Every structure is written in structure tokens, then in C-alpha cells.
Amino acid sequence: MQVRNFLFHRVSPKSEPWGPAISPARFRRVLKVLKSLYRVCSLEEAYTCSAPGRRPLATVTFDDGFREDIEYAAPILESLRLTACFYLVVDSVESGRPNWSYELPRLFHLSARRQLRIDCENPRELGGIFHFESPGALLTFGKDLLSRLRYVPHSVASNIYEQVRKQLDDVPPGPTRMLNWSEARELIGRGFEIGSHTYTHPYLSRVEGDVDLAFELGASREKLANELGFPPQSVSYPFGDYDRRVAQAARASGYRLGFRVGQVFADNTSKERWCEPRVDVYADSPCLVTLLRITGYLEPLKRVLRR
After folding, report:
1. What is the C-alpha separation between 60 and 58, in angstroms, rounded?
2. Phi, psi dihedrals of residue 162, rounded to the nearest 5°
3. Which CATH class is domain 2-97+177-306?
4. What DSSP letter does each residue of 101-145 carry, written as one string?
5. Which residues make Cβ contacts (< 8 Å) with residue 34, sequence separation at least 6?
6. pLDDT above 70 as % of the chain
């Protein structure tokens, strides 16, 4: 049976250039469309249901664990009698800070520094002393750096992030915006599911050693179990990044489901449940594109236009 898994990140009346958010009003409209087209249910129900109904199944999920999840998203979901699964990054819950993929763009957007030194021998081209004539030049450099960090080993990316964070120290810490353990337990008490979004939010396919990969997947599951009273049954791969090794590690860590990003329907009868697709509902997409995406017509339309 087909399942349509939908992915959101932030619901908030305030959106920043480095962290777009879908407004509460728009989120409500999107949910109403989902409810009219699908039978929205929990992940548990979606992946155990075998009897086809009048409407396809759909699930709602959130990545990263922003505090807006409980302030805005959860009340809207409850008002429409819908449920969702919230995926938490353990390090963000512990520190109260967003993960590095949110923090690094924020630093590049707000810093007034005109020089940056990055020590990196492998790959050497990422290292050097860089000078910037304007904030725009720093921002352009930052965007390019972020795109290139995807293709380097995780240890290298983490080291570069720490160097940049320490040097762009003219940017004050952002407000605490992440869910804490008490709020995560509250969400469970209100009928929502909680899943793992790893320990530190890396590109999992770029994590070098099996021990480190097991930490990101297994230790995060164990920590969530200790704090919430039971282990999460599913994991969301940061950036949707995974490979066969990652899927095998997720299975070995005890997860029943592993989620990537893919603009297609999932099949709840598949035996390979550690690479299930989710449709990313981008906060900054035009309304028509969002509608086409959630109805499943966007990708076929793209293929027709490419001919």
C-alpha cells in the first residue's frame, strides 16, 4: 500500500534568510489540503496497515526539533485532529542550540568580520586566509563553503565549522529555540511520536568510521530511550543523506524505519524500510508548487517540461 510521507522543518510567524519557516496560517492551509486528500495517520499505523481505504495514507513529520514545534505546529495539528512525528537531534536538545547546518549560515549572514582563516590540509583547497570587502562577499563565501562541506569527511567538516564559529565571534548567540527533554515528553503525552535525527546532524554517508556512525545512530537512540522512556522506532537521516552502509547501520541500531528525502510515494509493504522517502514541503516554495508537490503532480510535470 502506498504511503505519502511529508516533511516539514519549522512553523513560525518569523522567518529568517538562513532558516525559512512556514507561517502558521499557511501550515494550517497545507494540513487542510492533506486531510482532504489523504488519511493522515501515525507512522506506526501507516506501516502496519494492510487494508486499503478510500484515500491513500499520509504522515506528517518534522526534522530538527525547533521549539516552534510545540508552540505553533502541535496546536494546529491538534485543532485538526492530526498527529505527527518530531525528529530530534540529541546535541541540540542538550545544548538548546540549533544544529550546525542552521548556525553556520546564521553566522555568515550576520557577521561583520572581513577575514577568515581556515586550516585544512585535506582537501587543501578548502584551507587558506580569506579576505572580504563586504558582508555580501562573506555571505557568498559562506554559501560556497556550505555546499562544499557536503563532500568532505565529517571530521573535516566539523573541524572547519568550529574554526568558523570561533572566528565569527562578533555574532551573539541566538535565542534558545530547540525543544528540551521536558517538552519532548509533553509532545508524547499529547499523542505525538518522537524519532531520532542523529546525535549531531552530520551527512551520514560522510561519517568515516563504523564506530562514529554507530554513535550517531545508536547512541542517539539510546539517549532518547533514556530520556523518554522507550526507544524511537524510526530515524530521519539529516539532509536525507544516506547510502547502503548507513541503512544497514540504522537497521543494526534497532530502528524499524529509516527516512530519506524523495518526492515519491513510499510502499508500506517493502522489506527495505531503512530508505523510505519523504516529500519535503519547502517553506519558501510558491503556493502552487507546494500544492503540486503534496498532490504528487510536481515531479511528473517536471519530467514533461524537460522533454
Report:
1. 7
2. -65, -40
3. alpha beta
4. HHHHHHHHHH----EEEE---TTGGG-EEEE-SSHHHHHHHHHHH
5. 6, 40, 58, 60, 82, 294
6. 98
Could you read off the pLDDT of 183-200 as tens digits, one per residue? 999 999 999 999 999 999
Global confidence as pTM = 0.93
The ranges assigned to domains in the chain are 2-97+177-306, 100-167
CB 230 within 8 A of CB 269: no
pLDDT number for residue 51: 64
Q: How far is CA 228 from the centre of its chain?
A: 20
